[in-house]
Amino acid sequence: MRLLVVDDDELDRLAVRRCIQQSGIGARADEAQSAEEALACLAGAVYDCVLLDYYIPGEDSLALLRQIREAAPGTPVIVFTGRGDEDIAVELMKAGVADYLPKGSLAPERLAAGVRHALEVTRAARAREHAEAELRAEEARFRTLANAIPQLAWMADAEGQRYWGNQRWYDYTGAPAGGVASWREYHHPEHLDRVSTSFRRSVESETPWEETHPLRGRDGEFRWFLTRALPITGSDGDVTGWLGTSTDITDRLRADELRAEAEKLATVRTLAGGVAHEINNRMMVALGFSQFLLDDPAISEDRRRDVLQIQRAADRTASIARQLLSYTRQAVMQAGPVSLDAAIGELLPVVGRLLGDRRLVTRLQCPDAIWIDPGHLEQIVTNLVLNARDAMIDGGTLTLTTEAVTVPAERESAGRPLAPGSYGLLSIADTGNGMPPETVARIFEPFFTTKPVGQGTGLGLSVVEGLLDQSGGQVTVRSVPGMGTTFSIYFPLVPAPIDMPMPELEDRRHKFLAGATVLIVDDEPGVCEVAVRALEASGCRVLEASDGSAALDLIGRHGPPDLVLTDIMMTGIDGAELGRRIRDRWPGLPVLFMSGYSESDLRKAGALDGGATVLEKPLRPEALVDGIYSALRANGAAARPQPARQR
Questions:
Q1: Which of 92, 216, 231, 337 is 20 to 30 A off residue 562, Cα-Cα?
Q2: Among residues 230, 180, 183, which one has the least CA distance to residue 210?
Q3: Exposed/middle/buried for residue 301 (C-beta within 10 Å: 0-12, 13-18, 19+)
Q4: Can you identify the CATH homologous superfamily of domain 506-635?
């Protein structure tokens, strides 16, 4: 132990020195006679304690005391004086001295006790300061960590009353300083009771808490959070508080919803492909044979009406299959340039029949061509017109307009960006009941309908959106309750003008097909029979095969026909594999596909490779003949005599 004795009196210093020696504290004492010497000693060495005479000539005792404490902060100072004065003692103790000893009663034991007490107090003070510094550092580290984590963090007392929140909590909620105490204000009112009750149960049972709930941000929008809280326990095991975090899970929930939607779509796609194949095969037979009956000049009028009802039912069933495929974005698309005005003009008789006694107003001002499958355009218009008709229960007016528009810069359309460019705009406006905003927000959801049970599938507008997605178009809707609804459909325009070919005359088509040989490959006998009768009636010679293997054998025995018309999904050698083998062995032989399956199934089978043409089942006889005719003309094939029909 090293002490510094500061006293101007030699005898007093000797007395103090003897007390130190006799006290047994084992201390070494340095001496200073003035303030200057004392400060010099403190500057050159470290002392455990300073023994300071209160009266030093020419010095302000309190000022000197402050200088010593500044020179040696934390070093205890014991003041001794030749006279006892309680006022001085109180003043010195307030100034921070460790002890006050009168010189008259100075004894080795008293000095030793004073030094030990001073050292003990100093050690305790230093330990306390160190602990406080560590606590401040720990709090700083905690604040840094709490503010660095992506979660909203908060603390509550043992009763669950929140008193602290990290910076992210304030940044998200926009609450003023100390606003964490009013955390209930930022919870959704529909969930507040549930969340409060759940947390209260955890506080009462002193068990960890977990809950999901919406929380309002500074922008007024609610996002979903997963909140967890753990009880903080003291050394005695009692809960002293709670530490909680709230993690934003909105994006994860949306991703889960999208994943669930994708899984649902995948299931529907699988189901839709199989259902569409079976329905379309059966409906092709029904449509084909009903058309053969209608073509019979001897059919009675009553029988004709019966057959037309069968044909309408078959058309409706086939339409449902197409809607399933369109909803799953899998309908086979045969897109090409189509004059918007011309296409809409051709549909006006159909629109008029759908509207019944409701008024139709048209303004067609877009002769430019759009790129779309004509069948898809018809389906889009039909679905929107049917919706408009059903909205005008007591009659009204449907206004159908077209125009060419230019979007100069990217803007939002139905929540998605509409790219700059030229569009053909089709608007379909009704004067019906209109829809509230919450209904408008959901109208494109699959299976959502406002119609009574049995009067709507909920697929119509989802089909419209799906078909437009395939064609690169978009649809927006504007509706006001009691004032009607307007659908605006944007179709990308074809950059260059298109020459629309005139339809060929019936006799010219018949002359071209006369003598042409077509090989039909399908494992459905009814479909084969419809195709055979339709093509033979158009002058073709027909060969039949029930699968790919039989077709290859037939071509090997009789030579290649002018064209092969094959179904795609068959057992054994399917249509896609048959097409590949024919291209390898007879490169110039055209192959035309037909299928009732979805586009994704056809792509998996490879049937759409190399720009293959696919006729979508069910086909009416005239549509089948048109497809054969177009394929032969495109291939430049010339009819040549072949053996008579063989099976």
A1: 337
A2: 230
A3: exposed
A4: Response regulator (3.40.50.2300)
The two tokens of residue 307 are 């057959």
Class of the domain covering 2-128: alpha beta
Strand order of the β-sheet with 517-521 is 541-545, 517-521, 563-567, 591-595, 614-616
Its pTM stands at 0.45
The whole-angstrom separation of Cα 419 and Cα 409 is: 7
CA distance 352 to 385: 10
DSSP β-bridge partners for residue 427? 401, 488
Q: Which of 182-186, 376-380, 416-420 has the lowest mean pLDDT?
A: 416-420
- Is there a common fold for 2-128 and 506-635? yes
pLDDT confidence of residue 278: 79
Strand pairing report for 359-365 and 369-372: unpaired
Contact present, 546 and 575 (Cβ < 8 Å) = no
Q: Give 99's contacts (C-beta < 8 A, 6+ positions apart).
A: 78, 79, 114, 117, 118
Any idea of the CA torsion for 80, 86, 91, 92, to the nearest 10 degrees? 20
CA separation for the pair 620, 291 (Å, rounded): 8
Fold assignment, 336-492 = Heat Shock Protein 90 (3.30.565)
pLDDT tens figures, 134-157: 888 888 887 888 787 889 999 999
- Provide, rounded to the nearest whole percent, the portion of the chain with pLDDT above 70: 86
Return all residues near 323 (Cβ < 8 A) that are at least 6 apart: 379, 457, 459, 460, 463
